[in-house]
Design brief:
Blueprint lengths: L4 H5 L12 H5 L2 H4 L4 H20 L5 E6 L5 E5 L16 H7 L22 H7 L1 E10 L2 E8 L2 E2 L7 E5 L4 E8 L12 H14 L4 E6 L6 E5 L5 H8 L10 E7 L2 E9 L6 E6 L2 E2 L5 H20 L12 H5 L2 E8 L16 H21 L1 H30 L2 H4 L18 E6 L1 H10 L5 E6 L11 H4 L3 H10 L16 E5 L4 H17 L1 H5 L3 E4 L4 E5 L2 E5 L2 H13 L5 E4 L8 H9 L6 E3 L5 H12 L3 H10 L1 H5 L4
Parallel strand pairs: 1-8, 12-14, 15-16, 15-17, 17-18
Antiparallel strand pairs: 1-2, 2-7, 3-4, 3-7, 4-5, 4-6, 8-9, 10-11, 11-14, 12-13, 18-22, 19-20, 19-21
Helix pairs in contact: 4-6, 4-7, 9-11, 14-20
């Protein structure tokens, strides 16, 4: 019987077997989450996590990381060193085995490591596979051992493990250079990203010294961390720009071989900062340990409020949202067999952890409230205020969402919608002021570009509750135009524009308005940022006219370069500094800032939630001191603005 065309296209010959580390290079996303800048930094995390596992086993108290001038990374610890003896079955050194074979490691039972972040025996091998080269130095058994790999394979001419010299100390150094073939063009490690990550690790691994040295020029930097206070110190750090209602509540207990450490503190602010860790690994998507902590807080507050008459018999219990407003909390667990959602370990899945964390946190928090009635009253009163404000916000939200987008826009410059109905092709420009809005409306492509002018500065949403926010006309206009709702009704599937572009003047007021808008999106619509829908337009700072020819400069450096070239050619020119978008006519605004063929857009993303939370709190919160220090630190940049 003759084969069909489909059968000819798919037969036994199409079945591929990927050997060694070939699968990692072919599908890096399965192992480190992709090939973007986040995945690049995940390479460092995988190697550092191995050193942290040594620390958790009590065999290491010092980890040093260096970013070398060629963007290679070295990680050194003073643990016992990776075993170098011949593996009895595989007949290669244990060192080579863990770096060249997936699912090979010492963490599948509890013999070598009681708890660890490495579970699958993939980390070191995956980093090796995705590196242009890797060199591993092991100080063990009185000697220094060495092996070099190239794209996951022991490198010629000396493929085997080499013994270099006698060495009394123990430990491991892993030095690698990421493969430019795998990662995005112009990929480079960011000192701040690694620094913030190592700070988190140091908080949840108390007693371990962590250092980061950047040897790249402009400038060379160094930072080190060492904390004895654990997650309690972490909560103090997170709230250093906030006013706490009480001292941090802390609990540390081991239950059924699961180590639980919890710290929490309520503040006068309204933002919630919750962070969870499993075996020192940050789990940004939370999991059972975080849900256990949330349950404990809500249960304890409701029990105390009823017992002490703050909630009457007819009153409803506080919701989880009511009891978490203004809360900063960190939970860290150490589990002998943690189950994560994926190799990138973004979410903890162990069902038994929820009840254990709830029990530990509830006992400590309940005891604190009983022993500190004055502080307990402050916490309950803020929950009552939050509950009332949430009811008011629900009514205001329902009122906003009952109206159509055009009905709810009461600003003088109303939404100028586009004709395209496919959200994936639509853009919304949120523009500062009616003048710029008028130019943008005239200069845009009406087919796919919508314009929403805002009058003045929107409400500072860092300091206001949702009911006050929903009473603000500019905020109501944005919510209605976007179509996604807010709070409990938020639904990303209803987004009417897949590109939301903030377009403000290049001056101090414009920067302030942009920050207010970013604060709103970060606090109330973070999914827009996480899914890549939010952008910042980059209008030019200067127009340089030579005869009939027009050039635009988007920075001071670019302007200087253009002028230098014109002066070299002895050309006469006219230089105009744009102080506002309204100074551009519609054609210039389209050509420089709105035309997809020419414009420059900055995509807003959140690489580190801890840093973003702290920054917005510092810039837009109630405490003046931290904001003043920030302004003074960057005062030279302010003085250089031509405003």
């Amino acid at each position: 019987m003759a084969k069909t065309e489909a059968e000819k296209q798919y037969d036994a010959g199409n079945i591929q077997v990927l050997k060694g580390l070939e699968a990692v290079r072919r599908r890096p996303g399965m192992y480190i989450g992709g090939t973007d800048i986040k995945a690049l930094h995940h390479l460092v995390t995988e190697i550092v996590d191995n050193s942290i596992d040594e620390a958790l086993a009590g065999r290491c108290d010092r980890i040093e990381v260096i970013i070398h001038p060629d963007d290679s990374i070295s990680v050194t610890d003073n643990g016992v060193g990776i075993p170098v003896a011949l593996h009895p079955i595989e007949k290669v050194s244990a060192l080579e085995l863990v770096h060249t074979t997936l699912h090979a490691g010492g963490k599948f039972d509890n013999a070598a490591y009681k708890v660890s972040g490495g579970l699958h025996g993939v980390g070191a091998a995956a980093v090796n596979a995705l590196s242009e080269w890797m060199e591993v130095y092991v100080r063990r058994e009185g000697h220094l051992w060495f092996q070099r790999y190239q794209r996951g394979v022991p490198q010629e001419p000396v493929k085997k493990l080499r013994r270099l010299k006698n060495e009394d100390i123990t430990g491991t150094t892993t030095h690698f250079k990421f493969d430019p073939i795998i990662f995005e063009q112009d990929a480079s490690f960011k000192f701040e990203t690694l620094m913030n990550h190592f700070r988190e690790i140091a908080f949840v691994t108390s007693g371990v010294f962590l250092s980061l040295l950047d040897e790249r020029p402009d400038p060379q930097r160094e930072m080190s961390f060492y904390f004895e206070g654990g997650v309690k110190s972490f909560v103090r750090y997170l709230n250093r720009n906030r006013k706490g209602l009480h001292e941090p509540v802390y609990a540390h207990k081991e239950v059924d071989n699961i180590d639980v450490e919890v710290a929490l503190q309520f503040t006068e602010g309204i933002s919630v900062s919750e962070y969870s860790f499993a075996n020192t690994i940050h789990t940004p998507d939370g999991g059972t340990h975080q849900s256990g902590l949330r349950s404990a807080v809500t249960r304890v507050i409701n029990t105390y409020a009823r017992k002490n008459g703050f909630l009457k018999e007819k009153d409803k219990n506080f919701s989880s949202d009511d009891t978490h407003e203004g809360l900063t909390a960190v939970v860290s667990i150490k589990h002998p067999d943690p189950q994560f959602e994926s190799q990138t370990k973004v979410k903890l899945m162990n069902a038994e952890v929820a009840g254990i964390v709830t029990s530990v946190a509830a006992d400590a928090f309940s005891a604190y409230l009983e022993e500190n009635p004055r502080e307990a009253k402050k916490i309950i009163e803020r929950c009552l205020t939050s509950s009332r404000a949430r009811d008011a916000a629900r009514k205001a939200r329902e009122l906003v969402m009952r109206k159509s987008a055009l009905e709810s826009l009461t600003l003088p410059g109303k939404l100028a919608d586009c004709s395209e109905r496919d959200p994936a092709r639509c853009e919304l420009y949120i523009v500062e002021g009616d003048s710029a809005g008028g130019s943008a409306k005239q200069g845009r492509d009406r087919h796919f570009q919508a314009i929403l002018p805002l009058r003045g500065k929107i409400l500072n949403t860092e300091r206001a509750r949702l009911d006050k926010i929903l009473a603000n006309n500019e905020v109501k206009a944005m919510i209605a135009a976007l179509g996604v709702g807010i709070g409990d009704t938020f639904d990303l599937g209803n987004l009417r524009y897949h590109r939301i572009i903030i377009m403000c003047d290049a001056d101090v007021d414009g920067s302030h308005i942009r920050t207010l808008l970013l604060t709103f999106f970060f606090r109330y619509m973070p999914d827009l940022i996480e899914n890549g829908h939010l952008f910042i337009a980059q209008p030019p700072l200067y127009r340089i006219k030579t005869g009939k020819e027009m050039q635009y400069a988007y920075s001071e450096a670019e302007q200087a370069a253009v002028l230098k070239g014109l002066q070299k050619e002895s050309k006469k020119y006219d230089l105009q500094r744009y102080k506002g978008l309204g100074e551009m006519n519609p054609e210039q605004l389209w050509e420089t800032t709105m035309d997809p063929a020419n414009r420059v857009l900055l995509q807003v993303n959140i690489e580190d939630a801890v840093v973003a939370d702290k920054t917005f709190d510092m810039l837009m919160g109630a405490e003046v001191g931290p904001r003043k220090r920030f302004i003074m630190t960057h005062s030279n940049e302010v003085r250089n603005l031509d405003v």
